[in-house]
Specification:
Elements: H1 4-15, H2 20-23, H3 31-37, H4 59-65, H5 67-79, H6 87-117, H7 123-139, H8 148-151, H9 160-174, H10 179-195, H11 203-213, E1 241-243, E2 246-248, H12 252-275, H13 281-286
Length: about 300
């Protein structure tokens, strides 16, 4: 489902590298990490059931195309109201980590998949294969047997803390004012698909629905996991491929290591800005912030 499992594991792997003095305040329950690692794409689920109505906002695309400014504006607000043991602060900090990890991962992963598969790439299919692969690899979970909802039963709430944090940054960065109703609806729809993510017996119904409406937007069939495997996505033999006109030959694991290094560097820069007096220089550099902008 849109790489939601991969987003989760990538965020958790990055957080493991954060100093204990920071992460000791974080919750132990996994649902919050799944929730926040998938915020960037959760809006996709709002209209996927409706073949006639289009999402006129498409916040997933807006965030994808301009997430650095959104993170900066949200971080500025968080710093102005931070209390280390406050649940508001903890949830908002994890939210920023989720924005960083998921979008950094996309920056590396999507061009890689396009290069590996060339014109045959179906992104949703590839992301499903990787979700299935990493769930097996990390926790020996078969996504065709266990639903995402069962794995993360409390992951489908739009937190009041996040609404408080992002309301003004959303207006400033995207001119979007309807965050509360929009994202509550998105998470509610997300939960419905999460409950059915392992229902392979319903796959024919989803495929028929897609074919009947000749849908050009996201297809329902990729909301159900199957046992599809595609070793070419892993590039274990390190065969060459082209990304933005440059020949590369990294395997998927090598690529994820590069993405992780970049995400951790961004998280460290954010932490220095939030926790260290006058620690904003690295934050400015990593997030390309104009030197005249007040932080």
């Amino acid at each position: 489902m849109k790489g939601s499992i991969l987003n989760y594991y990538f965020m958790k792997d990055c957080i493991k590298e954060i100093p204990n003095v920071v992460k000791d305040i974080f919750p132990k329950e996994n649902s919050i990490y799944f929730n926040l690692s998938n915020f960037s794409s959760v809006s996709i689920y709002s209209f996927i059931y409706n073949p006639f109505k289009k999402d006129k906002y498409e916040m997933d695309k807006l965030i994808r195309n301009n997430y650095l400014d959104f993170i900066v504006e949200s971080a500025i607000l968080l710093k102005s109201s931070m209390e280390e043991n406050d649940s508001y602060f903890t949830e908002c900090l994890l939210f920023l980590y989720g924005l960083i990890t998921t979008n950094t991962l996309r920056d590396y992963l999507y061009p890689y998949l396009k290069g590996i598969k060339k014109d045959s790439l179906n992104l949703d299919y590839a992301l499903n294969v990787l979700d299935y692969y990493y769930a097996k690899k990390k926790d020996k979970i078969d996504l065709t047997k266990e639903s995402i909802y069962h794995l993360f039963p409390t992951a489908y709430t739009y937190y009041d803390s996040i609404e408080q944090l992002i309301r003004n940054p959303m207006i400033k960065c995207y001119r979007f004012m309807g965050t509360n109703s929009y994202f509550k609806k998105s998470y509610k729809r997300f939960s419905k698909f999460a409950k059915r993510s392992n229902k392979t017996n319903r796959l024919w119904d989803y495929k028929f629905y897609d074919k009947l409406f000749n849908r050009k937007k996201e297809k329902k069939e990729y909301l159900i996991y199957t046992k599809n495997e595609d070793s070419s996505l892993l590039n274990l033999k390190k065969e060459s491929y082209i990304v933005n006109g440059i020949e590369k030959n990294e395997s998927l694991d090598q690529l994820l290591k590069m993405a992780k290094d970049k995400a951790i560097k961004r998280i460290e820069a954010l932490n220095k800005y939030l926790f260290i007096p006058k620690g904003e220089q690295e934050f400015r550099e990593e997030f390309h912030i104009d030197k005249l902008k007040k932080l």
